[in-house]
Write a structure and sequence with these properties.
With 444 residues, the protein is mainly beta. 5% of the residues lie in helices and 54% in strands.
Amino acid sequence: MKRVTQRSLLSTAIALAAFQAQGAGFQISEHSASGLGRAFAGEAAIADNASVAARNPAAMTMFESAQLSGGLSFIQPDVNAKVNKVGSTPAQLLPATVSYDHKDVAPDAVVPYFDYIRPLNEKSAIGLSAFSNFGLSTEYPTNSAAGAIAGKTELLTLDLNVNYAYQVTDALSLGAGLNAVYADASLNRHAGAAVYGANSATLAAIGITQPTDTVANMSGNGWGFGWNVGALWQINEKNRLGLAYRSKVDITLEGDYSGLNTAYVGKVGASVPGELELNLPDILELSGYHELTPKWALHYSAMMTGWSRFKELRATSANTNCGSSSGVFDGVCLQKDEKWEDSWRYAVGATHYLNNAWTLRAGVAIDQSPVPDSHRTMSIPDTERTWYTLGATYKATDNLTVDGGFAYLNGDSVTGSETEGGSTFEFEAGGDAYIFALGANYTF
């Protein structure tokens, strides 16, 4: 399971999004520049451009002509984290060789999307989409006091989705699709304050004496497959409801591991093959769109993400390659309990059809965190956040429209406690984020 040095162009295009700038956990919502402007309210029902294929395939029957949509979201997080204690020792009393107050731990990111819908006849349509539903990136200094739990963590996913939709009656359309999901992940951890703790002699015996020394390094990639379905009920020309479901996906990441758990079985500095099972959740969304007047429309969404299946991160290899503690040959290279819970996202938005050229949008959303207080970690210190968004569409020609969107995400500040290698780290984390999106839609 060797991590490739050069990723393919397609997998590189779907960039990493920072944890505070996504949906709950490490979910990514940025599938549409127009959707961002309304806080993604009504996404499974509005169908104002081809990006609806990524949310509800049934809505593809609303298109009379083929359309291509694509765009980019630029995500700028402002996320900070601070280590307060290591064991009973206040962080500020630790040696100066370690750092404990960390700024901007989530890097900027660009997240693209692409969608194409083509009607086959008056009742059916097909669609192709490329987007990302999950991803994260956090990066702490290599000399962080909490290096054992908060080094560099990255996850990239790419969802390739093919859909088909059929209009069963004048009011009801159904759709279904198949998904191929690629994932690429890496994790790097350092000794941090552990070199000054109770296990310092054990670490020194295997060559780990500095806070910046690596104690775990893992990388891998793999493919998983899933499906999605949707329904659209057109109550009348001014009102419709959408319901969409995207299945869970299990991906076996195959790659390399090196660190303490190889040293424990006598393979100091060795890199061994291993695998990690990544369990991505299912997603259920209910949306509504209602034209109140010829100039105004209201829309809303409720989305449930099945994070309760994300129980742990467990990387394994042959028994002779890894041990969970010194002298134990059990094949466990990395074990990290997560024990997340299902979470909900609620959004409401409004659209103002200003004139033939301009459409204006605004929205607000509440994103619940799936991470219980007892299992909050520094690598994913997820919090509940509130979205405030604005957006617009400009009709450049009869065939071309341009979308723009902006979102401010206000995240809570949280505290947590995490134990690793016999040391307990108390920390606090939180911050805000800004998202700017630009997209275009061309009708053929």
